[in-house]
């Protein structure tokens, strides 16, 4: 499917919400959250009412509203209500600092802020200083909705109009406002959710990744709405216990997580038995999935984890393993509808088996980074998007992750992938998580340094881990220093922030 397959005059919210009414699903449950549930018909009513409220307070087509809200039914209501009215929602991480939020509100010039009550104190110190912000709305929105008109004609947007923004997760520094168009949510739903997962109306979706994250937005909003499936939302942090509670009580058929969460679930004594689960498949993204985690999870839960990679810039997964076609230790093959290339530093294609930067060509690429022309031009190069990720491809066409381009280390004149060293460390029975960065030795030569989190109750020495890595990899790749840590710095989406470990 390509963007041209979507009508030129197109509103994403009108399609995703209205399509379920046209299909006769008005009485089917669309969302279940911590406080209750709503049907597709009730969702459509609330979306219209919220869009009308935004218009009634003076917001206009193409104005922006910033959403800093925990996952509940009010989140898709606000997001889709804005889009239905032609207003552009800007979804942001709920675990940031006041400084981050002030930056994003100023950068986006948002006219309204939608903020969950527990997060409001993060914003209060600077709200009066923002020249563009006019309105602050705090959920729950029940009273606001009750006073609004339930009839709303979708704004006359096109498939190429700016639809929503997502700020990049900040795993490599300052977040960037990534602008996506109306066509892209439907396209990711057709290409990945339909083409790879075979998502059906009968599925029940649960994503540990939150709605503000590109991965979570697809999992919990565009995918289930496109298929007419039911979605379980969770406001709290995705700890293993919180996830187990939803897996056993709500019985989802598809679960979306990240490698660090899967590792934490496997390390927990509360891992439920297969008889208490109703999963047909699990999905992982955010970081490369270590093979031993995939194997252990299959043994415990009875289902495969499909490892894939997506990005804020491409909106969702473009490279993935598929049901029945899983190769452990790889990220699979290109999702139908996307083309991939591996290139060297000069932009030339690399040979089979060699590491190269991954470039992606596909219909869901973002338009640009807002107010950042230089980085836009560096990332969005014609029809191709630079991922910043290193990959190699084997003879059968499977892609293996080699780390972030910015994270690569040159040791003894040879490139070393931190991801490869991390995978070796995590394969040790005592290791829960690992992150590898470069550090200069006494001669100012860069060598690998590892930060390691051990599994509860396990003990191992640095020397034992170094010997173990030497037995798995070429000797020059072993970490010269190992520092044990209680936890690793991560984004709210589970990505390890290696830049915070350097120094």
Could you name the key traits of this structure?
503 residues; alpha/beta; Rossmann fold; GMP Synthetase, Chain A, domain 3; 2 domains; 9-stranded mixed sheet; 7-stranded mixed sheet; 26 strands; 28% helix
Model description:
- This protein is α/β, with parallel strands linked by helices and 503 residues long.
- It folds into 2 domains: 3-393, ANL, N-terminal domain (Rossmann fold), CATH 3.40.50; 408-500, 2-Layer Sandwich (GMP Synthetase, Chain A, domain 3).
- Helix content is 28%, strand content 24%.
- The protein has 14 helices and 26 strands.
- The chain has helices at residues 12-22, 40-56, 74-84, 98-108, 120-123, 142-146, 183-194, 214-227, 240-249, 259-267, 291-301, 373-379, 418-426, 462-472; strands at residues 29-32, 37-39, 64-68, 88-91, 112-115, 135-137, 162-167, 177-181, 204-207, 230-232, 254-257, 281-284, 305-310, 317-320, 333-334, 339-343, 356-361, 368-369, 380-381, 384-393, 399-404, 409-411, 414-416, 431-440, 446-454, 481-484.
- It has a 9-stranded mixed beta sheet with strand order 2-1-10-9-11-12-13-14-15. A 7-stranded mixed beta sheet has the order 6-5-3-4-7-8-18, with helices on both faces. Strands 16, 17, 19, 20 and 21 form a 5-stranded antiparallel beta sheet that branches.
- α11 links the parallel β12 and β13.
- α1 runs antiparallel to α2 and α10 (259-267) crosses α11 (291-301).
- The longest helix is centred in the N-terminal third of the chain and has 17 residues, at 40-56.
- It is globular, with a radius of gyration of 23 Å.
- The mean pLDDT is 94.
